[in-house]
Amino acid sequence: MRILITGGAGFVGARLARELLRMGQLAGQTIRELAIADLAAPPADLLADSRITASTGPLSSHAGLFASGFDGVFHLAAAVSGECELDFDLGLRSNLDSTRLLLEGLRQAGNTPRLVFASSIAVYGADVGQTLPDIVSERTLPAPQTSYGAQKLMCEYLIADYTRKGFIDGRSARLMTVTVRPGRPNGAASSFFSGIIREPLAGIETACPVDRNVSHAFASPARTVEGLIAVYEADRAALGGRLALNLPSINGTIGEVLDALESVAGPKVRARVRFERDERIAGIVSHWARGASAERATALGLRADESFRSIIEQYIDDCRHRPGYPPEALRGLEG
Amino acid sequence: MRILITGGAGFVGARLARELLRMGQLAGQTIRELAIADLAAPPADLLADSRITASTGPLSSHAGLFASGFDGVFHLAAAVSGECELDFDLGLRSNLDSTRLLLEGLRQAGNTPRLVFASSIAVYGADVGQTLPDIVSERTLPAPQTSYGAQKLMCEYLIADYTRKGFIDGRSARLMTVTVRPGRPNGAASSFFSGIIREPLAGIETACPVDRNVSHAFASPARTVEGLIAVYEADRAALGGRLALNLPSINGTIGEVLDALESVAGPKVRARVRFERDERIAGIVSHWARGASAERATALGLRADESFRSIIEQYIDDCRHRPGYPPEALRGLEG
User: Fold this and answer.
1) B150 to chain A: which residues are within 8 Å by CB?
2) Which domain holds residue A283?
3) Are the beta carbons of B157 and A158 separated by less than 8 Å?
4) Interface pTM, i.e. ipTM
5) What is the pLDDT of residues B175-222, one digit of tens each?
């Protein structure tokens, strides 16, 4: 079978690609080609696998690729929340127009490919004068408070309609905030959730732009990739009638994350995080969900991370054993 | 002030235009120009008013008009449900792309114009294996089962995001099925809801494509126009935090509609309706809401029609006194 990953050179996309190559098959079929479409070239370890083909450039240049007859697609490419707030047109172009171009290509191919769309917990939010439940569920009305979230939600409905029409077999997995992301901070408003773990472990002082009582919904990279694959492999009937579902999360506060960091890495590491409010980030985050439930993903057998400790231990283990983690990542770790 | 009505040559749009001209002002400001953008030219009675300007052609040709600095906009232009099911590309072009072009023009003008978007009860629907509540409320999760409904819902979220960004002051009024529409059947899957009243009153035999127990949510043209204007004039704070709201409806079955027709016009008129199932139409309608509530519109002071009788009496009165109703419309009325 031929699989496409858009955004496959990114952190989650490349990790998904490695896992698919390791598995060798998906939904019972052998993966013969794994195409990666992304702005940047995929990492060297992926390019070294003969099953990988890479198409580098903006998604808008890949109309022909999209129509070339894939059996399955993971659509992860997106401009992230912080940059979409700063550049409204970029968000519409990268998140809405590119998704339409992809869907049109898949429709033209005519083979009803399966598609998993990486949606986001950012579809939830509290309108002005409204309050969100402490835990958002799949029965909570989405009300995005970022352009990124609005575009993700619009794409969910577009994918549901393409599916209803029989053009694709689509489903949308709402990703929780993936933690810990390696490397440099990115333009996502949620970037600091990884930063407050990653930077102190690398020996770098870092600022947390929100209060320690801020609560959010987290998932490790491993659980996120597992979720994307499980949603791909699920029968549509098992999705419970709606095509968008929350992936499982562990819900908790910044304070709990830092307590876990201290318990894994010691007080000197934790002390590298200082609280320094950033009004722009804090404003965005104040409208976000403080936690999420994932009834339908749970029914598919998916589980959240056990603890913030296990998320941090997964990161430390990844730094030691996985490609894509810089050698200096654990320079600040004691002992 | 300068007002724009897209779709202002259509039935609801022209009726809204007449009402605005009669009022002479909107939200306390004098209407100096009422621009109508539509595929077709507006009716003669509108063109005769010096405040009317007409731009005839597809919305895609009106980018300059949209950016010309309107104070307020009623966005009614759309391809309807039945034709969007038959022509998927038409729906995306007419309903999604045209709305984006309009919103971009309004954003470019830079004066944060107020906009009322005519959304639809078609945003609600039951996914396969799911059931809708008997009465959909504003807390019911939308799940459109037509491309038309999906496109309307996507536009609601786009308008909410343009509003959050301060580019426009937008709100979405979900129209119930407007009954009785005069003239010929149109491409809407809901067209027959008007047809089973209009045709027998004109002396024409007609087929009802669904069972008499099918229930739905209806509003008269007068209540619909009143709702659009009230949603325009409402303070954003009065909308209750969310920008999309249901307009009030009277909920009931085909059987109840026909009972009302008989009570107003006699058994001979009712007998002109025969039941002849149309699988395409019945399939679409089977996924629709059987009734709706409208808490937030009610809080704005809006009311549903009193009865199906009053809806039919309004139509008969309109046929006798309003422009746009053909002279033969009541040819089948007894006595």
Assistant:
1) 157-158, 160-161
2) 191-217+249-330
3) no
4) 0.95
5) 999 999 998 888 888 999 999 999 999 999 999 999 999 999 999 999
